[in-house]
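Repro:
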Amino acid sequence: MAKPNIGNMMKQAQKMQADMARIQEGLKDERVEASVGGGMVKVVMSGEMTVLSVLIDPAAVDPDDVAMLQDMVAAAVNEASRQAQELASSKMAAVTGGMNLPGLM
C-alpha cells in the first residue's frame, strides 16, 4: 500500500482553506430575502447573517395588534437567518466535498 503524499495533502488543505476564505468573503455580497404575512413584513439579510433591512407594509401596522406585527418581524428574521445559514452551508459544501468541519459553519 502506497504512503499518502504529505506534500500533496498539505497543498490540498491550503487550497481548501483559501477557497473557504474566498467563500466567506463572498458571503458579504450575497443576499437572502424572507417575507411573511403575505409580504407584509420582509427582511433582507446578508450571507454573513447581518440584517440589512426590515420592510413593513403600512397595512400591517394595526395599533390594536402590535403583538402580531412583532411576531411577523421575528418570523421573517428567523426565516432569513435560516436561508442565510443554508446558503453559507451549501457554498462551503462545494469546497469541502460535504465534509463536516467543526467550527467552520
